[in-house]
């Protein structure tokens, strides 16, 4: 696949975006230079979840009384699009903490996200809202949502810079509206995060979707590994900056790693389960501005230990006969990427890396 | 526009669905008989909302401390698709209580919803998640979400029947998986419902979208009227079973209407604002199984007064020189429709009604 025209087009779209003055206008202008996307079918469904029941008998004259009533919750919500002439394996996208399917859609500055980019490359795309998040908000357990002000924490945690300053050369647009859109793509947990609930629902989604390539981001990495161990339908895993729940065989868990945001611990699983992860190609990507020495900025420091543990984790997979690749982007000459490299300014370049890897592994 | 081929195709899709045995399979099978959808552009953005700030100074070494930090919330989240050769006015869809953009997507039994149906009819579609719902869950006020069992309440309220019995001839599929999908398309408020917050965000969305036809459902009806009074971009309103917040000129509010779910009150607004609603065509639809006499089933009884007030409301619009049409489907020979007529078994017929009205009003 010759990606050069796409790169040139992306540069043109970027230029149009810069001069249009608004994210939405940038998108409208930019996209009109692109060919239409031909969708063979698209739709939405829920997958997995559970049902709770209050004891008693439902009284149709007292419908607000919970007695004898059920609640369906803890499912995933899935929006999918299948292009004409789709490739064999769909890409199934799972967002990270505080995010939803929006993660993979339009970028904060109005360019195309991985949803459109990979549709244009003839992949079917399935965008997940995990249980207790976004359009899958109905849960079998109660929840509380604070309105704690924390935008600046995320600015630092997601490595845009150290508030209010962007990192020099960061791959993030510096206009106010892009940052506004970025903050507003967040959406809270409607009940407690539970990686078992998430991986069960994702496994149920894959039962419907069939053999797929699982693409996770950040917090989604953990349930991603659990799903790859549970489901026969995971043919490969692509993890963007997995941040926690690195699985290791019992007895091979590395030492705890203290950091500015707490202590990162390996997540022990039976060796038999772990071995599932050696049966598929896996690639893990990390971006730029991750310190190698202890930083007094917790937003940066937590990535120091996460990258460190990810390296040990990839080595462990490979020592057991697996095929795990860890790409630290600055080591391959790609600089300035944030925690959201798939929507960064160079996201077409990031997509090209994935396309090439999928081709190399015979997955395209 | 000759809709007969579409109707025939819909019947074929239904038959395929019945024999396939699963909602998802029905969809996969059904849709392959349809032509691809050609999308000129698609994407997502947030619109409107507000920002709160905690007093103090942000300390980058204590990122979890809310001092000096902001929170962006109370925006709408919008997913849109613009087909090739789009008609002049987009359809902007606002869901009802406990729902999200999912309302307009695939039906519970896996057929195409209004999103796809109207894309195929060359309308651009904009699907809203209103502030504090779905992918627009981040709010500037805190919220609590109970896990109260209430599926049976909604079964009755949404007029599928009187649990566990479906109404005779109801336009809803009677298999378990369809009901499972139907319950799971619900998603809760992440903070208190506020029709001003919703209509402000919707007005901001329309500032970006431009002149549009607003399509609301149920609870969305209220903020729909508020938006039509605030925004110059509402060219018409289509309201499916608006359930509350019927606006009347101050001094012309009808008497309160007690019902099994409480007392329905008219919503007074200044005459000057109300007159905005007389400047655009409006159509309101209600389905079947709405009692005319007091019912001891509150799920049914509440629709008795809502339909009654809607009739007075439409008459008030027209008395002031407007163009409001109320269609009670059984009165035009269409039977069995629930509160979700746009995803009922006969939703293509319901879409045909809308297409015809849009054509009659010169809006297509």
Automatic annotation (TrEMBL), chains A, B:
Annotated signal peptide: 1-25
Superkingdom as given in the UniProt entry: Bacteria
Record keywords: Signal
AB hydrolase-1 domain sequence ranges: 91-265
InterPro entries assigned to the protein according to its UniProt record, in alphabetical order: AB_hydrolase_1, AB_hydrolase_fold, Carboxylesterase_BioH
Protein name: AB hydrolase-1 domain-containing protein
Organism: Sporomusa silvacetica DSM 10669
